[in-house]
Amino acid sequence: MPATSAIDWDAFAKSLTPIETIQEPSQIEKLSKDYYHFSPVLQTQLQDKVANLVVRPRSEAEVVQVARACVQAKVPLTIRGAGTGNYGQCIPLAGGVVLDLTKLNAVAWVKPGLACVQAGAKLAAIDRVTRESGWELRMYPSTYRTATIGGFIGGGSGGIGSITFGQLRDRGNLQAVRVVTLEDQPRILELRGDNVQQVNHAYGTNGIITSLEIPLGPAYPWSEVIVSFEQFMQAARFGQALGDADGIVKKLISVHAWPIPSYFTALAPYLPENKAAALLMVADSCVEPLTALVQAWGGTITYTKAAQDAAKGTPLMEFTWNHTTLHARSSDPTFTYLQTLFPYDPDLALVEQCYRHFGDEVMMHLEFLRTEGRVMPAALQLVRYSTAARLNQIIQYHEDQGAFIANPHTYILEDGGRKTIDTAQVAFKTKVDPYGLLNPGKMRGWLERSGAEASP
């Protein structure tokens, strides 16, 4: 592809009329970034990466127009939702165009258990529409109020709701997508069923998702509950027991070792000093059986807010998943984090081993989810960062013990996720992005196929 410095960007922007373009440097800088700075490794690698132009289409037809212009000029194209990711997914390594899809935000239709939405629709906005007929999104990240559905599918993996519905890659959690290609003559393709996995969690490297059909779950009124425990492992085993309690309808089981609760300033009255905490979302109708389970495990409920009141103020979910890291970094910006999936073990032996081995250097934060029909903890541990070498030692220790690390300190798709090249995704990119213009430098399978190297 040609050097972006050789492009006349004023002329290129004018050729896209009447599509909205942004050329103001500070705006381009802002719209070229996500929350990559959660990682000190990525902060060094990505802080100087910026686009040359931001484009905001309002329709699928305008997306096709942008795709055609980028192919003709061989201009790199990086897709952006709300920029709430943490791994540099939407940061343009090679400059070029950032395609901001937030103006494609319509909810096209809602049926029982299913909705069709445009990629730029915010998750909270989708729920406002679907709840009118008694349905809601099955799962969402802690950035629910700002994240877009296209960004979540392109860069996410699970979140609040995963305790019931698993992860995004599980069959049935994404029904269909419409994708614009970057061929000489861009096409609009519809992928259905298992074919959606060709673009699911692909960082926008092999197609521009413009709309999606997403399954919905029943819209329960959700109560928020905080439970305090004397010891972390007591709280962790309670979390496992609650996850296994099929009769209690739940959406969130988030368990935190002290001192993590001390970083939740707004919740301070409900988080006793030196105590572990479980932050929960359960159906209003299940608070009574939850209370009995808490008593059985020796916990103390310090906070309960029914669904009617939970809609007011900061939702409890904004202290969980990656928002936990955000709150901790507000107190101490040297904190970073890991993403760990522990093997299935109802006794949580490896969780306890890692908790005791690292102490306060790697503070335990568990998010329980369901995978392959079993409940197990994923951890987003807070790490007191010292050096990259020590961080790699911590990662290696977990892997040597049998834990799986989804490394949040790399922008390479395969290195941060399943650690294997998805040949179906690479093959799809070969067809729909033959010049390698889409979010270049992020897909290892493509880089190895083309003999290129990832160069931050």
UniProtKB/TrEMBL annotation:
<dbReference type="GO" id="GO:0004458">
    <property type="term" value="F:D-lactate dehydrogenase (cytochrome) activity"/>
</dbReference>
<dbReference type="Pfam" id="PF01565">
    <property type="entry name" value="FAD_binding_4"/>
</dbReference>
<dbReference type="InterPro" id="IPR016166">
    <property type="entry name" value="FAD-bd_PCMH"/>
</dbReference>
<protein>
    <submittedName>
        <fullName>FAD-linked oxidoreductase</fullName>
        <ecNumber>1.-.-.-</ecNumber>
    </submittedName>
</protein>
<keyword id="KW-0560">Oxidoreductase</keyword>
<dbReference type="GO" id="GO:0071949">
    <property type="term" value="F:FAD binding"/>
</dbReference>
<dbReference type="InterPro" id="IPR016169">
    <property type="entry name" value="FAD-bd_PCMH_sub2"/>
</dbReference>
<dbReference type="GO" id="GO:0008720">
    <property type="term" value="F:D-lactate dehydrogenase (NAD+) activity"/>
</dbReference>
<dbReference type="InterPro" id="IPR006094">
    <property type="entry name" value="Oxid_FAD_bind_N"/>
</dbReference>
<feature type="domain" description="FAD-binding PCMH-type">
    <location>
        <begin position="47"/>
        <end position="219"/>
    </location>
</feature>
<dbReference type="GO" id="GO:1903457">
    <property type="term" value="P:lactate catabolic process"/>
</dbReference>
<dbReference type="InterPro" id="IPR036318">
    <property type="entry name" value="FAD-bd_PCMH-like_sf"/>
</dbReference>
